[in-house]
Structure formats: structure tokens, C-alpha cells
């Protein structure tokens, strides 16, 4: 244990020293990366904000829709309302940290060299760069859509039949996310000094309802070394015991939902588990909006403060009732390195300004369209009052829609960027047993 603590201390000191030694990114690169809409607005022939895209005009706007959304609109599963493109400014501390990343590089094994915090690769991706796809996924991996620390509660996962709109079941969770390193806003910065396991990020969830799943808990440790496999533990409330999840179980359906553990937040795996290819930059309609200006669900999800979820509509009530913006988007394709992986490839549409995964289209091993995973984004200034000034493009709604099974799991939730609850002692195996009893 002493050697592990020494190793963690060395890593921590390396972080601190690299802040001083690293070369700065040119300011014009930072401005282009974090403020692309200062003097430019995405456009497309015939498109005007406020337009409704439906089955009657979908062919005209096919090029600004991801492949799954085009399929749904064409088949009259949903129509999409649009709104003007708006800025989603991130934390100034995160941007400042990004200025120091002039020496960051991708190592031969796919891991990062000389990285401390912020956006690892702010420069525009280059089609001629064979590592461009990897670099974009690293930007996502160390992005700021959860800040340094996030609590999501309430969090409702609802199983829905796409053909009949029947609600089959709702699981109610609380979720917690904590960055141990690469921190920019919450103390300690840039890292917790006591981190003997060399953890990069902790994820913890607890099922509140229904009764048969109550107290089921999931704990995930992702390590600073991306070549080290995640550790994951599941506490089953009805068995009152903790079991370690095998690596392959991250691609099983999680608690009967349409999501795999690997699907969380768009992609919840190691960068080095996939081969990534940058496909190109395009302007796409993505679910970016102001939460407080949407037509929200009539039922308060949190009686204490009256917070209401994004509502649902469309075929099976599987689609977010929000407006879409035309936004600069980096598209990349990921192919699993494991030949036994159930997915053939993931096509990720990464919002250029925020580096968040706002749309993900999954294909099966035969190459057929399989699943769609949009993640709605609201800026933290236009959400819950507790998030104002946090500089985060908040996850605000998601759905995993299985096109082949004609089934979906909708995710409606309240995200709060806070470190009040999320401390390292929440993210350990002993805590699972304690909370379970």
C-alpha cells in the first residue's frame, strides 16, 4: 500500500509540474475550439431556425440529420422543431487548463502523454492525421459535461414499447460522478493527493425503486492508465452481497434496459478498447436547447423544488420534446477491438464547441442500423438555479432506442454540478455494503 501511495504521489507531482512546463496552445486555436460561433453561424441551403423537419421535407434536409434521425423522420416516427444556434460557453478554468496542452500527444499504445487537464487537443482535427479519431475521443473522455463532480437525482429510466407506447417499467436511481484527477473547478485541484488506486473517475449508482431492485448498486473505477481495465462491482439488494463484474458484462443489458454499461453517457469505455476513425466535420441538427424554455413534463419530478423533466413525444413516446440546433459537429467511427463484441461499430457525432456526444448511432455486426442514442444538452445557466455559473453543457435527457427490437429506454433526470456529496469515500466497495444494509 505504501508503494501504491508513493506512486500516486509521484503522479500528483507530475501533474503539478507539467502545468508549469507545458507549452501554451496558440490563442487563435483556443478561440476557434471553444468559441466557434463568435463570428460564424452554421447554415444549410433552405434551412432557417424555427423550421420543422418532418416526413414531407426530410429529403431536403437529409444531410443535416444523423442517419438514425433521418430514418425516424422519414418513417414518420417523429418530427423535429428547430431553433437558432446558441453558444454553450464552458468553464473559464477548463479553458485556461486547455491552453497549457501544447505538449500533449498520443503514445504508441493509445494513451496520452503530458496531459494535465482541460481539452487535450483543441486544434481542428486533420483528415490526414491517422490519430485524429483517437484525439477526438480523448477530448470527450476528458470533457466537461459532468464538471469535476456531478450528482443526478432524481433519475428515471422508463422502458417503453415503441409500437404501442406502453410503459413497461420505470427504474428510479440516484447517480454520482467524481473526477479524482484533471480537476479544474472544485478543490482539490488538479487532483486528490490520496489516490492509491490511481483512479481517474468514479461512477456510483443506487436504485431507489421499484421494490424488487431497491438498493441495487453499481460502482465503476476507471483508471488513469487507459490500458488498465475498469473495475466494476454490483451490489444486489435482494442478495445483500457484492460481486465483481467480469469485463464482458459491460456489454450486457443493464438491469433489463436497452443500455449496456459501455453505453453510459454515450460511450463509457476505455479509449483503447476501440479503433477510432475521424470521418469529417459537418453541420448537424443536435438536441441542444435551454431546459427552462422547453415544454416540460407536467408532473414535477422533484417535489422539493418543483423541477420538471424534459417531456416525451413521437412514436412510442421515445423522443425528447425539445428543439434542435444546427451545430458544428465532428463525426467519428469506432470499431471494437474485441472480435466478439456485440456491436459492429459506433458512429459518434461530437459537438465541436463542447466535445459532448449529442448523438450516437450504433450498427450491428452485419452492418445494419441497430440503436440510436441522442443525449439532450442544456447549458448550466438555463437549468436548475444550483448550476448557474458552472460552465457545463449538462446532460439533460437521453434515450436508447433499439430500432430492431422496436423498444426504447428513456432517461429523464436532474443533474446538479456539486461536490457536496461526491467525495472519494462514496466510491469504494465498503460503501456498497454499508449503504446496502
> Would you identify the CATH architecture?
Clam
How many separate domains?
1
* Annotation, overall tally of beta strands: 22
**Percentage of residues assigned to helices:** 10-25%
Helix and strand succession? HHEHEHEEHEEEEEEEEEEEEEEEEEEH
Low-confidence stretches: 1-21
What would the CATH topology be?
Answer: outer membrane lipoprotein receptor (LolB), chain A
Task: Write down the overall mean pLDDT.
Answer: 91
Q: Please indicate the percent range of residues in DSSP E strands (runs of 2 or more).
A: 35-45%
Describe the structure.
The chain has 437 residues and is mainly β. It has a single domain, classed as Clam (outer membrane lipoprotein receptor (LolB), chain A). It contains six helices and 22 strands. The chain has helices at 2-21, 27-34, 67-74, 92-98, 132-141, 429-436, and strands spanning 52-53, 80-82, 105-106, 112-113, 149-161, 167-179, 199-209, 217-223, 231-236, 241-244, 274-286, 288-289, 296-302, 307-310, 312-313, 319-320, 323-336, 343-351, 357-364, 369-379, 393-402, 407-417. A hairpin with a 6-residue loop joins strand 17 (323-336) and strand 18 (343-351). The longest helix has 20 residues, at 2-21. It is globular, with a radius of gyration of 21 Å.
Amino acid at each position: 500500500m505504501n508503494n501504491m501511495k508513493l506512486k500516486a504521489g509521484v503522479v500528483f507531482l507530475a501533474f503539478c509540474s507539467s502545468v508549469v512546463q507545458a507549452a501554451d496552445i496558440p490563442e487563435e486555436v483556443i478561440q476557434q475550439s471553444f468559441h466557434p460561433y463568435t463570428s460564424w453561424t452554421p447554415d444549410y441551403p433552405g434551412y432557417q431556425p424555427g423550421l420543422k423537419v418532418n416526413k414531407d421535407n426530410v429529403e431536403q434536409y437529409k444531410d443535416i440529420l444523423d442517419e438514425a434521425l433521418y430514418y425516424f423522420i422519414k418513417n414518420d416516427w417523429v418530427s423535429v422543431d428547430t431553433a437558432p444556434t446558441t453558444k454553450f460557453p464552458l468553464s473559464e478554468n477548463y479553458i485556461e487548463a486547455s491552453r497549457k496542452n501544447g505538449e500533449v500527444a498520443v503514445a504508441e499504445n493509445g494513451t496520452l502523454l503530458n496531459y494535465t487537464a482541460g481539452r487535450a487537443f483543441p486544434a481542428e482535427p486533420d483528415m490526414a492525421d491517422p490519430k485524429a479519431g483517437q484525439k477526438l475521443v480523448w477530448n470527450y473522455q476528458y470533457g466537461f459535461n459532468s464538471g469535476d463532480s456531478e450528482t443526478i437525482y432524481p433519475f428515471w429510466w422508463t422502458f417503453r414499447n415503441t409500437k404501442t407506447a406502453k410503459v413497461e417499467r420505470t427504474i428510479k436511481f440516484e447517480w454520482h460522478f467524481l473526477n479524482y484527477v484533471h480537476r479544474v473547478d472544485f478543490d482539490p485541484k488538479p487532483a486528490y493527493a490520496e489516490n492509491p488506486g490511481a483512479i481517474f473517475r468514479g461512477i456510483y449508482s443506487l436504485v431507489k425503486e421499484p421494490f424488487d431492485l431497491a438498493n441495487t448498486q453499481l460502482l465503476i473505477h476507471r483508471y488513469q492508465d487507459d490500458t488498465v481495465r475498469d473495475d466494476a462491482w454490483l451490489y444486489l439488494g435482494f442478495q445483500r452481497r457484492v460481486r465483481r463484474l467480469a469485463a464482458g458484462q459491460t456489454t450486457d443489458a443493464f438491469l433489463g434496459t436497452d443500455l449496456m454499461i459501455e453505453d453510459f453517457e454515450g460511450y463509457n469505455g476505455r479509449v483503447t478498447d476501440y479503433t477510432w476513425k475521424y470521418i469529417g466535420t459537418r453541420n448537424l441538427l443536435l438536441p441542444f436547447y435551454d431546459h427552462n424554455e422547453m415544454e416540460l413534463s407536467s408532473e414535477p419530478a422533484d417535489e422539493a423544488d418543483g423541477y420538471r423533466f424534459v417531456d416525451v413525444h413521437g412514436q412510442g413516446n421515445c423522443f425528447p420534446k425539445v428543439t434542435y440546433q444546427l451545430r458544428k459537429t465532428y463525426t467519428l467511427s469506432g470499431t471494437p477491438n474485441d472480435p466478439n463484441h456485440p456491436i459492429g461499430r459506433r458512429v459518434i457525432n461530437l459537438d465541436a464547441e463542447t466535445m459532448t456526444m449529442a448523438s450516437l448511432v450504433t450498427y450491428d455486426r452485419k452492418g445494419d442500423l441497430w440503436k440510436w442514442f441522442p443525449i439532450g444538452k442544456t447549458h448550466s445557466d438555463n437549468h436548475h438555479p444550483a448550476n448557474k455559473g458552472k460552465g457545463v453543457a449538462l446532460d439533460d435527457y437521453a434515450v436508447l432506442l433499439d430500432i430492431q427490437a422496436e423498444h426504447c429506454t428513456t432517461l429523464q433526470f436532474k443533474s446538479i454540478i456539486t461536490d457536496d456529496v461526491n467525495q472519494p469515500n462514496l466510491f469504494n466497495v465498503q460503501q456498497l455494503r454499508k449503504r446496502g444494509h
